[in-house]
Amino acid sequence: MADHITLQVARYRPEQQSDITFDEYEVPCPKEWVVLDGLNHIKDRLDGTLSYRWSCRMGICGSCGMNVNGEPKLTCATFLADYAPGPIRVEPLPNFPVIRDLIVDIGDFMQKLVRVKPWIMRQTEKPVSEGEYRQTPEELDEYKQFSMCINCMLCYAACPIYGLDPKFLGPAAIALAQRYNLDSRDEGASDRMAVLSEHEGIWGCTFVGECTKVCPKHVDPAGAIQRYKLTAALESMKAIFMPRGA
Amino acid sequence: MSDSHVYTPYHPRWLRRRVSTYWWLQKWSYFRFILREGSCLFVGWFVLYMLLLVNAVGKGPDSYARILEWSAEPWVLGLNVVSFLFVAFHAVTFFEAVPQALVVHIGRTRVPGRLVMAAHYMAWALASVLIAWLIVGA
């Protein structure tokens, strides 16, 4: 195995250039190094001006998402050796505005996330003295998969619909809404429905399915959206045939 | 990117990359998606052809013979072969998607997605056998 590999890293310095260019760096390639290690090597030893986001290095914080050879990846979970002999092209996540080098603006996603109210809502809170809201393992299994989302936004980068129409609510926000809709302790599904059922919500999705393929936590946002389409359609039918409620 | 986001006016230097017109050629999964969407025209034709066929059968032997003769023309035959392939492609991609959209429970147990998909294929096969029996065997 080669002991070094070339990283072609996207550079965007807004005060100097109007489009992305690529700089090449030779970095060590031991088998345990991930792309993020390569970027940290560049930052520490070769070029301190390189800008990128990272934090936990263990696939939990979701901040080091970038395009690696054209695929959205968590760079802390993508091994350099898998791309030997290289080169490896590292770019900012597509479908988001680029602030600098590999850093994208995530403001749009953060606004959408809040709109779907991703927290447990109760019509009435019971007093603390009555104890916790208990849940069976089966009830936990209903939403656990969707609770694994780490907001890394790889799904948004992979979704051509979001790229073409940024008003689309997007895969992660809908999956997280479903995480709470399917939680037996939650009573806020009807509150979320207005946002999820609008044209830019679930109906914006045409089921390309790429969001599920790139998800590093196996959340299956495409599945969450299709399931909610079925729920929304049934609710609409109920509203037509049973206007006074079931 | 759209210029509609609230942050846009305040950050004119942020780089907004346009999605290429040919984005659907970048990955096989994107191309497969466009193929599925675009081929719905052929599925529409298949439905129309079936309605024409049923209509001809209803009008009697002469009408049925005429539509058979028309169907044997090379361009109609070619169109129907292509349409059949696309209808089969739609059916397969639809059944692949079903387990993601349809979560079935029996009691408190969740039915595995593969079984849900297999049940759909079984239903498809049974319906095909029934129709074949009605046309050929009955």
UniProtKB/TrEMBL annotation, chain A:
<dbReference type="GO" id="GO:0022904">
    <property type="term" value="P:respiratory electron transport chain"/>
</dbReference>
<keyword id="KW-0003">3Fe-4S</keyword>
<dbReference type="InterPro" id="IPR025192">
    <property type="entry name" value="Succ_DH/fum_Rdtase_N"/>
</dbReference>
<dbReference type="GO" id="GO:0009055">
    <property type="term" value="F:electron transfer activity"/>
</dbReference>
<dbReference type="GO" id="GO:0006099">
    <property type="term" value="P:tricarboxylic acid cycle"/>
</dbReference>
<dbReference type="InterPro" id="IPR006058">
    <property type="entry name" value="2Fe2S_fd_BS"/>
</dbReference>
<dbReference type="GO" id="GO:0051537">
    <property type="term" value="F:2 iron, 2 sulfur cluster binding"/>
</dbReference>
<dbReference type="Pfam" id="PF13085">
    <property type="entry name" value="Fer2_3"/>
</dbReference>
<dbReference type="GO" id="GO:0008177">
    <property type="term" value="F:succinate dehydrogenase (quinone) activity"/>
</dbReference>
<keyword id="KW-0408">Iron</keyword>
<keyword id="KW-0560">Oxidoreductase</keyword>
<keyword id="KW-0004">4Fe-4S</keyword>
<dbReference type="InterPro" id="IPR050573">
    <property type="entry name" value="SDH/FRD_Iron-Sulfur"/>
</dbReference>
<dbReference type="InterPro" id="IPR001041">
    <property type="entry name" value="2Fe-2S_ferredoxin-type"/>
</dbReference>
<dbReference type="InterPro" id="IPR017900">
    <property type="entry name" value="4Fe4S_Fe_S_CS"/>
</dbReference>
<dbReference type="InterPro" id="IPR036010">
    <property type="entry name" value="2Fe-2S_ferredoxin-like_sf"/>
</dbReference>
<comment type="pathway">
    <text>Carbohydrate metabolism; tricarboxylic acid cycle; fumarate from succinate (bacterial route): step 1/1.</text>
</comment>
<keyword id="KW-0001">2Fe-2S</keyword>
<feature type="domain" description="2Fe-2S ferredoxin-type">
    <location>
        <begin position="18"/>
        <end position="96"/>
    </location>
</feature>
<dbReference type="InterPro" id="IPR004489">
    <property type="entry name" value="Succ_DH/fum_Rdtase_Fe-S"/>
</dbReference>
<dbReference type="Pfam" id="PF13183">
    <property type="entry name" value="Fer4_8"/>
</dbReference>
<comment type="subunit">
    <text>Part of an enzyme complex containing three subunits: a flavoprotein (frdA), an iron-sulfur protein (frdB), and diheme cytochrome b (frdC).</text>
</comment>
TrEMBL record, chain B:
<dbReference type="GO" id="GO:0016020">
    <property type="term" value="C:membrane"/>
</dbReference>
<keyword id="KW-0812">Transmembrane</keyword>
<dbReference type="Pfam" id="PF02300">
    <property type="entry name" value="Fumarate_red_C"/>
</dbReference>
<dbReference type="InterPro" id="IPR034804">
    <property type="entry name" value="SQR/QFR_C/D"/>
</dbReference>
<protein>
    <submittedName>
        <fullName>Fumarate reductase 15 kDa hydrophobic protein</fullName>
    </submittedName>
</protein>
<dbReference type="InterPro" id="IPR003510">
    <property type="entry name" value="Fumarate_red_C"/>
</dbReference>
<feature type="transmembrane region" description="Helical">
    <location>
        <begin position="75"/>
        <end position="95"/>
    </location>
</feature>
<feature type="transmembrane region" description="Helical">
    <location>
        <begin position="115"/>
        <end position="136"/>
    </location>
</feature>
<keyword id="KW-1133">Transmembrane helix</keyword>
<keyword id="KW-1003">Cell membrane</keyword>
<keyword id="KW-0472">Membrane</keyword>
<feature type="transmembrane region" description="Helical">
    <location>
        <begin position="33"/>
        <end position="54"/>
    </location>
</feature>
